[in-house]
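Q: Structure for this?
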Amino acid sequence: MKAIRVIFAVLALAAGTAQSRAPSADAKLGEAVYSRCLACHALAYDRTGPRHCGLFGRRAGSVPGFAYSDAMKRSDIVWNARTLDRFLANPTKAIPGTSMGYAGVPVRAERAALIAYLKQANGTPECAKQ
Amino acid sequence: MSFLIQPNDPAATHPRRMFLGKSGLLLSGAAVALMAGQDALAAAKGGKSATEDVSILNSALGAELEAIAAYQLGAESGLLQKPVLDLAVTFQGHHKEHADVLAKTIAKLGGKAVSAKEKYTFPTDKLKTQADVLRFAAMLEKGAVSAYLGAVPLFANRDLAKAAASILGDEAMHWAILRNALGETPVPSAFMS
């Protein structure tokens, strides 16, 4: 009986681990929203816009070697879910003078999904290599 | 790739000439919009709204220059077979025309156009087949549609918004044709975002 309980406990733990690694529904929607960013951004390398690996906890305008606008460099923002939500809603209003000439993601649920995706992507091997 | 050419289609006889002829009509729309707004552009030169418009145009130009380099990579990869290779070269030509119009407009507004980077980073380790290259190009084109869509409402000068919308239409056609070449639904939804 004890052995069966142990087996169930191990299976439950394994299921929990698998669930935590699988992308959430939010992250899946967020990946679709992220396709809007792919003219200028990539996760692992800089393009017209800076890379998104290492985004959370990073000071805005601080990826080494990337040519940011003065407005972004002076913004004194540290990227987290709250600051990203505000910026993504209307980038040019949040940071006037940003070179990200994009009207933003006005739908709150889409922003939440995009941020969930970016968080999940930052835990993937692609970002771990950075 | 015979699905790109329909039987009894006059384009089948001279597909490249027809394609270029049709696209030339469309691209001239962007140029016309800018030429029509030449006086307004000159008048706006140096103002705050012009500075902001230049910033948006330079972001677009940077992405267009990268797209030109991406199609060059695809064309030189040896992975693209005709007629897909011809399509890639044609689409690259469109991006060159976009970049040219954008750079000239930035200059008219008194700005300094960004230059092409000496080196671009592309996920070459993931580009092993023609389908990989097409999928990569489709991803860039879809992103470009979204980027222009996000830029259109921000332009202070409506002629610039019109020109950006004209380029957007061209990029959307690229995306649809690339999806078709991949065997995917060319136009998967009624709206773009």
